[in-house]
């Protein structure tokens, strides 16, 4: 097994290689505006670090969000392209699950990432491997009662300390955590989600209301 894992659902552009035993190379850079520019060089970098060629890959793991539309689709389209070009399967993993897995926590907690518009993407967990609720997008004040008293992880928790009283690292997901989680689940025979985006809301960009279609004469 040689899995290439990547995620662009948060400001982090993160890539890792997993050889079936553990992560053998990884790269993470935080830049919310340069996902498309940074992702392919990061893939080249981790392959070079591991001394491997892209043709050695046996599968692709991609974070499916939830996340903002523009950043999230960069990772998903890249994963799909690699999968098609190499003829290897592409597996989806919820980005929030990757953050949860990285904590190693054994008790209940919540993961929250920044959804912009003064909202967070979030879900509750029984432990680092077990999600209790579907990913959702809400204003922090609207979910205060549901997360009160729970440890919280992620950039969303750090942004809203009035709602998430005990925020912890990691701030962003790492592809290393996604790769380890995916490899663990695949080894256990767990079916991973399709690599389809969890947007949870419409994209920020909208067609103007008074937009006029111009047709050729």
TrEMBL record:
* Positions of transmembrane segments: none
Output the CDD domains linked to this UniProt entry.
ASKHA_NBD_TsaB (cd24032)
Q: What taxonomic classification does the UniProt entry list for its organism?
A: Bacteria, Bacillati, Actinomycetota, Actinomycetes, Kitasatosporales
Keyword terms, alphabetized: Acyltransferase, Transferase
* Example of a GO MF term: tRNA N(6)-L-threonylcarbamoyladenine synthase activity
> What positions does the domain Gcp-like occupy?
32-145
One Pfam family linked to the record: TsaD
Q: What class of enzyme is it?
A: transferase
Name of protein: tRNA (Adenosine(37)-N6)-threonylcarbamoyltransferase complex dimerization subunit type 1 TsaB
Gene name, per UniProt, is tsaB
Q: What is its EC number?
A: 2.3.1.234
SUPFAM superfamilies hit by this protein? Actin-like ATPase domain
